[in-house]
Amino acid sequence: MRRETSGSPDESARPLRILMVLESNFTQRGGGGAESQLRTLSLYLKKLGHQVTIVTPMLAAGPQIAVERCYGIPVARLRYPRLRIVGGMAMCLRFFIFLWRRRKQYDAWHVHIGHHLGAITCLLGAIIGKPVVVKISGWWELEKGLLAPKASPLGRVARGWLMRANAVQAISTRIASELARCGFPADRVVVLPNAVDTARFEGGTGSRPPERPFTAVYVGRLVPEKDLSTLLDAWAAAFGGRSDAEVRLKLVGGGGSEPSLRVQAERLGIAGQIEFLGHRDRVEDVLAEAHVGVLPSLIEGLSNTLLEFMASSLPTLASRVSGSEDFVSPENGWLFPVSDAAALAACLREAEALPRERLRALGRQARSDVESKASLDHVVGSLLKLYRTARTPERIG
User: What are the phi and psi torsion angles at 160 (to 5°)?
Assistant: First the structure.
């Protein structure tokens, strides 16, 4: 296992042609963490003069457009029959053919979810000597996908193909440890986090209003794995009986848990302190008005929201999960045990009681830390170095 330390985005003057492989939807709006991160990286690579193309399956729930531009980036979507087993096999074959026909068109292939299409990418890359970087970004790959302990026999074969990648990007130290458990060669595992566009969140770096209410913000899906029920329990324990003119909790995002969370807030007597804001295109405006960010997740790879909180100079209260434990420290925020409402309540009370200048100092340190570890210049510079210098593993055959 190694840490990528290159911080310069212009390792060489020659522009690269990069194919991004995503086994998910990529659209003009929405998507999860992998999609958001791919958009951020692709736009910055384009800004630096590199050519980026994205290829995805044409999923039933996504756009039915074979070729289009999203954010100015070419996106190719591959059709396949919507039939169980047969459809998956057809998709894999079509994807293999897509890569083979364009094997000379790109300088490097970058896989953003380590699943079946990623395995095929690594296999073909090993056959023809094409540099391949695979990103392992979260719990799904490690618990449900090809890297799960109880993967099927075919899944274990595909896992072996993933191990043919020139470089495997682990976005947290915990994921890197899990990759070692899975048998990935240590000299190909690179600890490199997600990137955040720190310039986008500069509006939050100024002095926030010192007056009340003390405002905390959560950004993300309202779903069970984010453990927002624990957050509401903790909020009630910390601030129950307080006026909404004194304390406010803003929840940005939507999801299936919203109705039950509203009922819980009413039951706990804190509904007046909670704002359900729904989706916001300019989340940076909401962050600029808060004093702290809160992330109570049960599980993460590395939360993009955490990086955005820190880029906005927000001290963050985060559960001790993958990724968060790499970034949050007593110098810039608070970590608490997963699902521990009492511990989170204690952190909330401590944060609210701090003088505002002390909160601002924690926030400034958070901004400094994320700039040094996860800025676009640092992460993209490191990726460009991998694209250019990754050694090709011994070829198959």
Answer: -60, -35
Q: Element (H or E) spanning 295, and its range? A: strand 292-295
**Average pLDDT over all residues of the chain:** 91
For 42, the domain range is 2-195+376-389
Same domain, 151 and 120: yes
pLDDT band at 144 (very low <50, low <70, confident <90, very high): confident
Residues 98, 381: Cα–Cα separation, whole Å: 28
When pLDDT is cut at 50, 70 and 90, the band that residue 396 belongs to is very low
Helices marked H in 297-354? 304-311, 324-327, 341-353
Helix, coil or strand: residue 245? coil
Give the whole-angstrom CA distance, residue 341 versus residue 352.
16
**Rounded distance between C-alpha atoms, residue 328 and residue 351, angstroms:** 14
Sequence-distant (6+) residues with CB within 8 A of 336 are 317, 318, 319, 320, 343, 344, 346, 347
What DSSP string runs through 33-79?
Answer: HHHHHHHHHHHHHHHTT-EEEEEEE--TTS---SEEEETTEEEEEE-
Strands 73-78 and 67-70, how do they pair? Answer: antiparallel
Work out the average pLDDT over 154-159: 90
Other CB atoms within a 10 A radius of the CB of residue 32 amount to 15
| Angle of CA points 80, 104, 71, to nearest 5° | 60
Q: Does one domain contain both 256 and 383?
A: no
Q: How many CB atoms sit inside 10 A of residue 5's CB? A: 10
Number of domains in the chain: 2
* Paired residues of 190 in beta bridges: 2, 169
Give the pTM. Answer: 0.90
Percentage with pLDDT > 90 across the chain: 79
Both tokens assigned to 198: 């720190």
- Which residue, 103, 110, 111, 105, is CA-closest to 129? 103
Indicate the length of the chain as a whole number: 397
Q: What is the DSSP letter of 196?
A: B
181: Cα within 13 Å, side-chain hemisphere: 11
Nearest to 159 by CA among 121, 116, 191: 116
| Cβ-based neighbours of 178, under 8 Å, separated by 6 or more | 142, 147
Q: What is the pLDDT of residues 241-260, one digit of tens each?
A: 999 899 999 999 999 999 99
Partners of 135 in the β-ladder = 169
| Domain CATH for 335 | 3.40.50.2000
